């Protein structure tokens, strides 16, 4: 499952509307705007769209996070009459007084898309989710369950109001939720010794010992986040809904993983159409405690910063076939390290059967592979090791047309853009100092 601080494509960012064009391949544009809470305000806006002949296909609302007396509206519209959007936005701003902010639509050629430079700027993503937690599709198991929908809204609200640096609010899970977790936990645990990779099996007992991973207890995100920080510096933050690929990947550059906190519907404990806490905690978390995997994940994030849209899609696909559905070699056998596999009882068995096609991880090919999202994958890619995957990723990232390199400074928790002599000198000094430590240590080992 992104917002900004000072500038994005030349626009000031204090306003609160965005257009997310790249996220949708079917010509649909999503946009958010906020309005003062008054009778007829929304009707005026809708009339504007109608007058310009733009068809709205989806609309949802929520209280504004920025201004208490405003409401935010998230809408999808058909992207057939895109030029008219300019007029509409201008009308929203000038005639109706809506606060308006554009993210990507007016991108000029060669403009580098905005990306967060400090870890605090990830807070802005909370305001840019593509769908809010309580909005369920008609075929979702919880669609007709008002209690479940209300519960989902509670979780979405926690994430929506969360800010970097705060402890992640503790949740008291219901007995029913704990039962659902217990079923998933018990079933998957029987498969891990034979199907999960070494790293997953190595970390899992530590999570049981330190983070409350038990059949009758749903662990708390805050406890896990603290644990991960001591292992690899990775941390969790709750997310209220779906983030764009660009925003989600940017989080990884800071070693931040956006995690859901709700659980799937109790009627189908072995199925979920979307990520839930079982997926995050049983699939993703163990691997983020592994230094090599953590670095690989961060490399994907760093490669995404300021990358053009087409490369974001490729990186998201690489993420899909590695972090979500990756297999790796262990001696002569294959094991699963992808979270989508490690959190699915059915697919974890299937992926190591003779049924799917298995291919070596070759990023030029993997990054353009099409894939289904609602059924088992017909093809999996095998990494020789996380180290090997990381090297391949670095090579792949070097082909991204970006006029600078970036590095993450863990002391300041900022992204440094290496596009000037001063930054390069700072980096050289840091490397020099580390080299000194290395040489000294080597001499002592002799
Ligand atoms: Fe996932």
Automatic annotation (TrEMBL):
Pfam families, per the entry: ACT, Biopterin_H
Domain Biopterin-dependent aromatic amino acid hydroxylase family profile: 100-446
Sequence similarity: Belongs to the biopterin-dependent aromatic amino acid hydroxylase family.
Originating organism: Apteryx mantelli (North Island brown kiwi)
Function: Catalyzes the hydroxylation of L-phenylalanine to L-tyrosine.
Protein name, entry field: Phenylalanine-4-hydroxylase
EC primary class: oxidoreductase
One annotated GO molecular function: iron ion binding
NCBIfam families for this protein: Phe4hydrox_tetr (TIGR01268)
């Amino acid at each position: 499952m992104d917002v900004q601080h000072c500038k994005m494509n030349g626009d000031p960012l204090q306003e609160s509307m965005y257009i997310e064009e790249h996220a949708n391949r079917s010509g649909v544009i999503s946009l958010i705007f906020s309005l003062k809470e008054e009778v007829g305000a929304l009707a005026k806006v809708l009339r504007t769209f109608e007058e310009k002949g733009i068809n709205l296909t989806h609309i949802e609302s929520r209280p504004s996070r920025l201004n208490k007396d405003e409401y935010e509206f998230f809408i999808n519209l058909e992207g057939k009459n895109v030029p008219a959007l300019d007029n509409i936005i201008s009308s929203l701003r000038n005639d109706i007084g809506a606060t308006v902010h554009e993210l990507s639509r007016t991108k000029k050629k060669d403009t580098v898309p905005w990306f967060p430079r400090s870890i605090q700027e990830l807070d802005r993503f909370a305001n840019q989710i593509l769908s809010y937690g309580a909005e369920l599709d008609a075929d979702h198991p919880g669609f007709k369950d008002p209690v479940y929908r209300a519960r989902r809204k509670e979780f979405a609200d926690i994430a929506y109001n969360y800010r970097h640096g705060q402890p992640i609010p503790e949740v008291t899970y219901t007995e029913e939720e704990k039962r659902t977790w217990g079923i998933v936990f018990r079933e998957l645990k029987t498969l891990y010794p034979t199907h999960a990779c070494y790293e997953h099996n190595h970390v899992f007992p530590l999570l049981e010992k330190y983070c409350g991973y038990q059949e009758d207890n749903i662990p708390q995100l805050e406890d896990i986040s603290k644990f991960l920080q001591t292992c690899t510096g990775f941390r969790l933050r709750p997310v209220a809904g779906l983030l764009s690929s660009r925003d989600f990947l940017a989080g990884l550059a800071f070693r931040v993983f956006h995690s859901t906190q709700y659980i799937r519907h109790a009627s189908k404990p072995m199925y979920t159409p979307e990520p839930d806490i079982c997926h995050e905690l049983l699939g993703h978390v163990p691997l983020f405690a592994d230094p090599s995997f953590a670095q690989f994940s961060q490399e994907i994030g760093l490669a995404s910063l300021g990358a053009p849209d087409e490369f974001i899609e490729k990186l998201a696909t690489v993420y899909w076939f590695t972090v979500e559905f990756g297999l790796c070699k262990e001696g002569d056998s294959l094991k699963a390290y992808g979270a989508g596999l490690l959190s699915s009882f059915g697919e974890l068995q299937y992926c190591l059967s003779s049924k799917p096609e298995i291919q070596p991880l070759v990023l030029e090919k993997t990054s353009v592979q099409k894939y289904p999202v609602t059924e088992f994958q017909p093809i999996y890619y095998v990494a020789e090791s996380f180290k090997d995957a990381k090297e391949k990723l670095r090579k792949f990232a070097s082909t991204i047309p970006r006029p600078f390199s970036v590095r993450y400074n863990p002391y300041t928790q900022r992204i440094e853009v290496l596009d000037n002599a001063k930054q390069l000198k700072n980096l050289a000094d840091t490397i020099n100092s580390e080299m000194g430590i290395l040489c000294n240590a080597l001499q002592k080992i002799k």
